[in-house]
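Q: Got a minute? One more chain.
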Amino acid sequence: MDLRPLRHRDFRLLMASGVVTMFGSFITMVAVPFQLKQLTGSYVAVGAVGVVELVPMVLSGLWGGAIADAADRRKVILACEAALAVCTAGLLLNALLPHPAVWPLYVVAGSVAALDGLQRPSLDAMTPRLVPRDEQTAANAISGVRWQIGAVAGPAVGGVLVALAGVPIAYAVDVLTFLLSVALLWALRPVPPSAEAERPSLRGIARGARYAWSRPELLGTYFVDIAAMFLAMPVALFPFVADELHSRWALGLLYACLPLGAMVVSVTSGWASHVHRHGLAVLVAAGVWGLAIAGFGIAPNIGVAMALLVVAGGADMVSGLFRSTIWNQTIPDHLRGRLAGIELLSYSIGPTAGQLRAGLMASAVGLRGAIAAGGLLCTGAVALCTVLMPGFTRYDERTSPHAQAAAEPQPAAAP
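A: Always. Here it is, folded:
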């Protein structure tokens, strides 16, 4: 793994904060549905959490992108992190009541999604300011490990905590992780906006959208991401796959396979810094994702199914690495926040809509057919992208004028 970005102090602090807060957040992601199940016993009540989260995240993500371009990104991230700690403390207080209420869980879920949407564009737009351009791919891989540690370890620890120690302890651990994360973020140096920054506005958001529309390589990254997540995201069907393969014991392992595959790629990603045809790399990786998911749909046993999910997770990580590199290397600093907000739409709406697509398709054509067809449709969409977006397929960081322009030093705004 290419560890050069960790030589930079502020990047180390940002990654350390991310590992801590992701770990705690994934514990709470287990605790909230567990508590809802305890309080209501309703499938609908548990599933409604996703609906409550989606709209606030989308709306605040767009506005958060505009804020990220106009404000000190460190201050935005720090304020949101502190607010997230307060939200989790609210869950803890509610859980300690003799008779916990249901409604606070939905209010907090929506609030956390809104804060995440406000914070994430600043997080995404900060990294290019902390590490040199030629280390962006390596930085993206390290950022991926931050998420993967939380995705693998957090649910495992969270499941143990809620089962053995109780929901309040799980929330208390998350509060502590947020407080530690705030301390780490406090030590970051200021990251002021560029001299070309403009005040947050709907007109500014629209200007960012027009810029994205004018860039075929950016449109290609959005199209591939949405196609892969909408057409071939099988997570909602995992419980049914475990039953179909007579392996209920392996349900938790199915959930762990995708992040495990991503982690394998991340920790062996030194080769990625030597790849320059990033658009082509995204297309190949997304095609492999689709084929692996199609194979998962027709896997004859649980071992083959899990192996194919690991391959799919690795392919998704490769695609994510190079999509992030294209964004970080080619978007001007004064637009990075707004473009990160648009990016947030692609990786929040795609998986959510994809879960609904998977359920409806499984009802119509059967479980195995729905998964396999989704994977093949994804691969077909990727092939179509290579035909319709030749600029994305040919993209090369060494010759891209946008990459060269974004590499030029950007003056900061006057304090």
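A: The domain at 214-403 is CATH 1.20.1250.20 (Growth Hormone; Chain: A;).
Q: Perfect, thanks.
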